[in-house]
Design a protein that fits this description.
By secondary structure, this protein is of the alpha/beta class. It is 45% helix and 11% strand. The strands form 7 sheets. An 8-stranded mixed sheet has the order 7-6-5-8-9-11-10-13, sandwiched between helices. Helix 28 packs across helix 31 and helix 34 runs antiparallel to helix 35. The longest helix has 25 residues.
């Protein structure tokens, strides 16, 4: 402790302690400090650089860090109790009420007793079992209440037998122990209702340990949990019998109708023995273990089929063999475990450790309500990539924060001197590549959009595993799950086939939700029901809440609700906006009346974003040194410019125009479809390359919690742009159109709108759908917008020709002069959108938490009122 060493009372160990152990053991590496180390603002270790830096790790001392070189985790997070309880409130509790209603409908007590434990709850990325432990308590509470009202004799007989076994085992010590019914019931619930999966064997051991301790009854052995809590990859393999059927249809181009009974029904007898075992003594534990083994042996033909089908997704040879199958009878199925193709499929996927849910949990899919009643949990949020810079930071503290040219020099040295680390890097790349291939080939639509992220695949898996008969999901997801393009089909699926019971968003300010996560992340607590909605379906949307007190106040009140059909009309990706309150919905709807930025009406201007260079792929074209080589042009990154600041002096690299211009022209010719709408004459002429003139660019990396989100700017000619600074190409439009669009993009009303969707990046699918008014050129507001934006953009002599085309002066503006123009531009843009004064005020009040907006709003309102009179 901070006070020094002290004794640890192991009797007080609970699920949070096991979560801490889990994170500490699984997510940390041990290194030896070569210098005194401190940490940067991201929590990443680096050497001391200036006087006053705090020494966190002295030289020659060992220290723990995660795979990004930080002292805190960044991939998976131990979910705080309030979030777990929130999700159980909205997902588990309603499902329990449904279960109780089904029991009540069964009039015969013996039949009701058989169905009493027929309630299946799963966490398929369980970690140390936090969600499952809490679920056991909730289930026990509801089932105990039911038993109090309806004394199902077979259930009480089983509880009584367990009590007698415990009393006998305790002998004389029984006088010191009280064995209550609810403790015995909790033990049976853990054994029969709870299911969990994790990729890491240590996590599985800790989850079992957590539940053993939580459901421990003196005198009784630890329950047999090997069947319920297992190791495997939840994302690689077959989730449902329906999925296997669809895969067979895809590969064999024939109609198949597989049933769970045909595939895993042979395990029924062993499963019945397993279910009947109460684990009352060592002999019953061994009986359960034997029954579990027999159940797995019985479903071996199905496991062989599923292994082959999942391998065929990623291996062309296996796919061709499956396609050559003339048919698939039950006899063929029985023979599969001895087929050489099965061995080939197992070898192909050995490193991925696929898990087939109907095989490992056949009892879940053999019942009438096939699938889980409830899916709960907090899946990992990690891209299946290995970033080389972060990899080296694990072994060279401070590497990631070095200037680019120093990083490149150090990489060359490390590759030469540390061949062991090069081998490690290559093996991690191979593992990530294999997982990425499996995900993009799996039943996860949209995974090929951007880098595959584990949470996206888990979102689909949750939906697939939930029972189609009203199964419920209560999970933690990053808010991007409801805005990212890669989950577009998932959201359309949810909105057409599911019901949102709750959607609460939390802004991780100060780490109040996850202390070891990025404080600007927005986190969603989402509860869903798998049931087709009616025409008037609503989505409740709470938050974002920046601290616990706001969260508590927010969930105590009724949430704002939005019609599904309205939400679907807002964007073409079914993205859900992050609205601060009810009044925001009205403002959002008003802004949304304007057409999309990428509208091509064949009449007015038309623009779309384009990426000039890739910072990684095109790095050989660049010169990464500190001092500018003579005649070279700067290579801009996002931080090289800001709103109305065309050049911050912070560059990524330098480019030789003789070499770079030729490469860009060849790239343009190869990517003709990206330049559709341009004439062949323009396309074939290297002198029309956009980098030879000023152009509108914007930062790709940005957040809704930054002081500004859409950071667009007119950048000068004779600069190159990396992928973090996309620019606009214009199949139709001139400099005045550029000025108008730039003014709109740089306005506060548009930025307020963008913050409803942006999380980490201003993705194209967000940028292209931004609402941008399309007034005619005779419109007085359009003329004023062009002038204001044109004058603000033409900051120095590099923009003289562009300014002349717009019809504005060119040159530096004093700060007070700039402010006046910026304030008026906000006011004029508000008129373009048709905002009322009340709505404009609301935008300023809700734009950024804690910002000092009063003076700026006052000046904007002056212009707004003045222009209102000129309408």
């Amino acid at each position: 402790t901070p006070e020094g060493l002290g004794p640890v009372d192991f009797r007080s160990l609970g699920v949070r302690e096991f979560g801490t152990i889990y994170e500490g053991l699984l997510e940390n590496e041990l290194s030896l400090a070569q210098d005194d180390l401190t940490v940067d603002k991201d929590g990443v270790y680096r050497p001391l650089r200036k006087k006053g830096d705090e020494v966190i790790v002295p030289k020659c001392r060992p220290y723990l860090h995660n795979s990004s070189g930080a002292r805190k985790s960044s991939g998976s997070y131990f979910t705080p109790d309030f979030a777990v309880e929130h999700l159980l409130d909205y997902a588990l509790e309603p499902a329990l009420k449904d279960h109780i209603a089904r029991l009540a409908a069964i009039k015969d007590d013996k039949e009701a007793a058989k169905a009493f434990f027929d309630f299946r709850v799963a966490d398929i990325a369980m970690g140390s079992g936090h969600f499952l432990v809490s679920a056991v308590d909730r289930i026990e509470s509801e089932l105990s209440k039911y038993l109090f009202c309806r004394r199902l004799a077979p259930v009480f007989e089983e509880i009584g037998r367990l009590r007698e076994k415990a009393i006998t085992a305790l002998g004389s010590a029984v006088e010191d122990v009280v064995i209550e019914d609810n403790r015995l019931l909790r033990r049976q619930i853990a054994r029969r209702c709870i299911f969990g999966v994790d990729l890491n064997p240590l996590a599985v051991q800790l989850a079992r340990l957590s539940i053993w301790i939580h459901t421990f009854v003196p005198g009784l052995p630890l329950s047999f949990l090997d069947h319920n809590l297992i190791e495997g990859n939840s994302l690689v393999g077959i989730a449902t019998v329906k999925e296997a059927e669809e895969e067979l249809r895809e590969f064999m181009r024939s109609l198949f109708s597989l049933k769970a009974e045909e595939l895993v029904g042979s395990a029924r007898e062993a499963l019945a023995i397993l279910a009947a075992s109460s684990d009352a003594d060592a002999s019953e534990i061994e009986l359960a273990r034997k029954a579990s083994r027999e159940a797995r042996e019985a479903v071996l033909p199905a496991e062989a089929l599923f292994d082959i089908l999942s391998a065929a997704r990623i291996n062309e040879d296996i796919e061709r063999e499956v396609q050559s199958w003339p048919s698939l009878s039950l006899n063929d199925l029985e023979a599969l475990p001895k087929n050489a193709l099965y061995e080939k499929a197992k070898k192909c996927q050995a490193a991925l450790r696929p898990l087939h849910f109907p095989v490992v949990f056949p009892e879940v899919f053999l019942r009438d309500r096939g699938g889980f009643d409830v899916i709960i949990g907090n899946p990992p949020w990690e891209e299946t990539t290995v970033e080389e810079d972060r990899f080296w930071t694990r072994f060279v503290p401070g590497f990631h924060s070095l200037p680019q040219h120093e990083q490149e020099s150090m990489k060359r040295t490390l590759r030469r001197e540390r061949t062991d680390l090069v081998s490690l890097y290559e093996s991690e790349l191979a593992r990530a590549s294999a997982m990425r291939t499996a995900l993009t080939a799996g039943p996860f639509p949209g995974m090929g959009t951007g880098d595959p992220d584990l949470y996206k695949a888990f979102a689909w898996r949750f939906w697939q595993l939930a029972s189609p008969q009203g199964g419920r999901i209560g999970v933690v997801l990053p808010r991007t799950a409801f805005s990212a393009k890669g989950l577009k089909e998932f959201r359309f699926n949810l909105l057409s086939q599911g019901i949102f019971e709750d959607l609460t968003t939390l802004l991780n300010s100060g780490g109040w939700v996850f202390s070891d996560a990025e404080p600007r992340y927005t986190i969603s607590l989402v509860a869903l029901k798998k049931q087709k909605p009616d025409d008037n379906a609503l989505i409740p949307m709470r938050g974002p809440y920046r601290n616990e007190s706001r969260y508590k106040a927010g969930v105590a009140a009724s949430p704002p609700r939005y019609k599904v059909k309205d939400v679907l009309s807002w964007t073409d990706t079914a993205a859900l906006p992050l609205l601060p309150d009810d009044a925001s919905g009205e403002v959002f709807a008003q802004l949304r009346k304007s057409p999309r930025l990428d509208l091509d009406d064949k009449k007015s201007w038309f623009a779309r974003p384009y990426r000039e260079l890739d910072a990684t792929i095109d790095k050989p074209l660049m010169t990464v040194v500190k001092k500018r080589p003579e005649g070279f042009w700067p290579v801009f990154k996002g931080e090289s410019f800001d709103i109305w600041t065309p050049d911050t002096g912070s560059y990524y690299a330098w480019g030789d125009p003789d070499k770079m211009l030729d490469a860009l022209q060849q790239k343009r010719l190869r990517a003709r479809t990206s330049f559709s709408g341009f004439s062949a004459v323009w396309l074939n002429n290297p002198k029309t390359l956009p980098c030879l003139k000023p152009r509108v660019a914007f930062r790709d990396v940005s957040r809704a919690t930054d002081s500004r989100t859409v950071r667009a700017c007119l950048v000068p000619a004779k600069v190159f742009l990396t992928n973090t600074a996309p620019y606009l190409i214009w199949p139709r439009g001139d400099e005045k159109d550029q000025a108008f669009l730039l003014g709109t993009l740089s306005s506060l009303p548009l930025d307020w709108y963008s913050r409803r969707f942006v999380e980490i990046h201003v993705n194209y699918f967000i940028f292209n759908t931004l609402p941008v008014p399309r007034p005619t050129r005779s419109n007085v507001f359009w003329k004023r917008s062009v002038y204001l934006a044109g004058r603000l953009a033409a900051a120095d002599k590099r923009f003289f020709g562009w300014a002349e085309a717009v019809g504005v002066e060119c040159g530096r503006l004093e700060e007070d002069e700039k402010d006046v123009l910026i304030h008026e531009l906000d006011a004029v843009t508000a008129h373009h959108y048709g905002l009322s004064e009340k709505q404009l005020i609301h935008i300023y009040e809700t734009f950024h938490e804690g910002w000092d907006y009063e003076d700026r709003l006052k000046e904007v309102l002056k212009h707004f009122t003045a222009w209102s009179r000129k309408k």
